Write a sequence for this structure.
């Protein structure tokens, strides 16, 4: 080796240790070695990543960049200045949830990037590889040449490796209440969903999908793309390039801002997440989204009790009564004009009727909508600011008397705040409204944001509203109040940090069956929701319709499932609050409480553990959950429009014990369309390892309660 070579060798060594040259690509593997992320820079210094599962590429080389207002893009000319690995294996407890203990086990890699010259701006990319998927986020450290920025676009690419089957809803900036579509990736056409009826606000700017979006590859792998810890940032939709099988992040914008997100450094973006599973059910069991959020920041939340609840609610949706006292508005179709004489639902007597039903049937909670003033001006107003009042009851609703009666009967009343998408009015009243709740012993509130956001130019899923929903959670936590938001921002696992975020809507709920012009939710709706929307967190779907066709109220609307399917939803669709949404009189049969209501009385709402026993996206799913405190097991299974027989093995039960099981299933001749209320109940003795064949009718389901024998 001559002198010249020696010198250059030493230079290379030096530059490698100080990382002045292009590094070899960096890779990171999950603890079980199955999921792998590779990070690298192109010759031009453009960052890109790839993801593989076992030896199969899941996401091919995908670029990552940002466009900024009045500044050069953060896209290329980068070098790696440092990289750091980490590993964690911890177990934490959920105050309420699908399971008590959650294992958080990942390997992490932090890549520090800096522009090679010019402003030398810095950005770090933080990767985590879990056994159930991978995630990364951008971390903008404090620095000299980058202080306050307006992000015009985040361009995180997801290059798929084939024309996967996709279950998607359009990337609407204002609402998630769309039906899921099952198509090939190349056939995604979100713009065709622009004019779906019955949406109070909708804005679909381009061919994009919302997250979680779930896919199945030709090789049988399941993928779901979403985000975790959405804080002070805009929600992410995924723009679709159908020919190239490519998705690119498209943040929800703000016309007022003239961009997507206004930020001051330092800050971190939300995590971009890719769940990877070999069985569809493993997507549901994954807790990666939660694990990517910070631990509980608000302490004890025992003021919230997981519970079932009834409510003055479905009767307005099917048109038996009204929210407003005048009865002058048709809130079902969100239109104005006289629709008839007052049939106000939220009266003192009616509330007492529900309280009686609840206390006699083991239901803890009562929701009353339309109790407060504002509803009769709402739809007539151009300007919705200042219309709703969250302290003043209607004249025919004796607030104090209802609270007294509920208290006497051991029923907890849930507050209702419909903000009419006027968040500033809500923010003004929040302090007082929450004090009013607490003074009356109320611990949880259902909020709602129907309509276009005021101020104009903001969207439900933009940064401004993300920050509003956050303010509500924080103020509510300070007052010891739990929040169930309708028309919410998507769930991104924040319930770990703010366990007062108990449930939310954020999907096409049961209400669409009451009034939707397109026939409501088809039988495959919930077998799809379980593998899509439900991956993000608890759902206030409001199951439990027994009067499936409610022809005495509406001829053209109905529920498109069997009664047994409705029962199964208490187990399949997870929420720490579950409504028994039908009217008390619809839960009666031949002068007594409907025998199938016993399942709703018995079923748990807070779980020690949950197991997905079988399932295929959009077709069927069966979940078994063990209740905390009692140890009782509940199993729920649902199917789409196809009849099927599912074979269950009760291998989750404990050895050497005998249990009493009650099976609630579709009758032989049940069918969602023609005979939806036909059911059968069977009692039997079971033990660990027992096998059961259960036939589900078209649009059907089954529910089982399993209690250890004394
Ligand atoms: C929409 C909500 O989803 C529904 O549950 C509620 O009854 C209405 N808004 C009125 O607030
Ligand atoms: Ca809604």
């Amino acid at each position: 080796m001559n002198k010249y070579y020696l010198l250059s060798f030493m230079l290379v060594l030096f530059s490698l240790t100080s990382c002045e040259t292009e590094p070899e690509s960096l890779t990171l593997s999950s603890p079980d070695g199955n999921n792998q992320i590779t990070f690298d820079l192109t010759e031009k210094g453009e960052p890109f990543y790839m993801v593989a599962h076992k030896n199969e590429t899941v996401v091919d080389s995908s670029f990552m960049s940002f466009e900024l207002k009045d500044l050069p893009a953060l896209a290329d000319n980068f070098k790696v200045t440092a990289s750091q690995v980490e590993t964690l294996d911890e177990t934490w407890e959920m105050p309420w949830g699908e399971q008590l203990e959650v294992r958080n086990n990942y390997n992490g890699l932090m890549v520090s990037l800096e522009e090679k010259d010019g402003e030398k701006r810095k950005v770090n990319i933080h990767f985590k590889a879990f056994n159930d998927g991978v995630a990364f986020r951008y971390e903008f450290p404090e620095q000299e040449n980058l202080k306050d920025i307006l992000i015009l676009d985040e361009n995180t690419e997801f290059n798929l490796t084939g024309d996967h089957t996709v279950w998607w809803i359009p990337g609407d900036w204002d609402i998630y209440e769309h039906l899921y579509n099952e198509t090939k990736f190349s056939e995604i056409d979100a713009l065709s969903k622009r004019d779906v009826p019955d949406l109070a606000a909708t804005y679909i700017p381009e061919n994009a999908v919302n997250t979680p979006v779930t896919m199945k590859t030709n090789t049988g792998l399941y993928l779901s793309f979403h985000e975790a810890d959405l804080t002070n940032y805009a929600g992410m939709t995924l723009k679709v390039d159908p020919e190239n099988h490519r998705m690119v992040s498209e943040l929800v914008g703000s016309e007022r801002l003239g961009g997507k997100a206004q930020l001051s450094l330092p800050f971190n973006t939300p995590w971009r997440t890719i769940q990877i599973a070999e069985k569809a059910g493993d997507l549901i069991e994954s807790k990666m989204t939660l694990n990517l959020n910070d631990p509980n920041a608000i302490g004890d939340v025992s003021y919230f009790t997981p519970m079932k609840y009834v409510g003055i609610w479905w009767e307005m949706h099917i048109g038996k009564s009204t929210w407003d006292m005048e009865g002058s508005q048709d809130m079902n179709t969100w239109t104005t004009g006289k629709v008839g004489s007052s049939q106000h639902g939220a009266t003192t007597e009616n509330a007492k009727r529900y309280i009686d039903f609840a206390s006699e049937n083991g239901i803890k909670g009562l929701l009353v909508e339309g109790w407060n003033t504002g509803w009769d001006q709402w739809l007539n107003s151009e300007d919705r600011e200042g219309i709703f009042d969250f302290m003043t009851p209607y004249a025919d609703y004796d607030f104090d008397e209802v609270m007294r009666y509920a208290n006497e009967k051991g029923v907890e009343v849930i507050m209702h705040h419909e903000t009419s998408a006027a968040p500033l009015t809500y923010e003004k009243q929040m302090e007082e409204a929450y004090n009013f709740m607490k003074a009356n012993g109320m611990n949880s509130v259902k909020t709602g944001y129907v309509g276009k956001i005021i101020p104009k130019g903001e969207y439900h899923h933009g940064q401004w509203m993300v920050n509003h929903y956050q303010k509500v959670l924080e103020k509510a936590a300070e007052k010891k109040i739990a929040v169930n938001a309708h028309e919410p921002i998507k769930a991104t696992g924040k319930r770990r940090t703010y366990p007062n975020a108990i449930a939310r809507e954020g999907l096409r709920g049961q209400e669409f069956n009451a009034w939707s012009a397109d026939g409501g939710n088809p039988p495959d709706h919930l077998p799809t929701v379980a593998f899509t929307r439900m991956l993000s967190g608890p759902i206030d779907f409001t199951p439990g319709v027994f009067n499936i066709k409610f022809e005495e109220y509406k001829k053209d609307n109905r529920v498109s499932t069997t009664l047994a399917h409705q029962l199964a939803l208490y187990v399949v669709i997870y929420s720490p609050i579950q409504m028994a949404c039908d009217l008390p009189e619809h839960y009666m049969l031949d002068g007594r409480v409907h025998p199938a209501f016993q399942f709703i009385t018995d079923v748990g709402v807070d779980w020690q553990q949950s197991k997905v026993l079988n399932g295929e996206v959009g077709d069927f799913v069966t979940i078994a959950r063990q209740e905390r405190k009692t140890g009782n097991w509940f199993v729920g299974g649902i199917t789409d429009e196809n009849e099927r027989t599912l074979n269950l093995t009760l291998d989750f039960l404990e050895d050497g014990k005998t249990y009493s099981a009650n099976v609630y299933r579709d009758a032989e001749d049940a069918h969602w369309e023609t005979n939806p209320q036909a059911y059968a109940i069977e009692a039997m003795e079971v033990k660990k390892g027992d096998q059961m064949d259960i036939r589900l009718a078209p649009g059907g389901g089954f529910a089982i309660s399993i209690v250890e024998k004394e």
Summary: DSSP finds 13 helices and 37 strands in the chain.
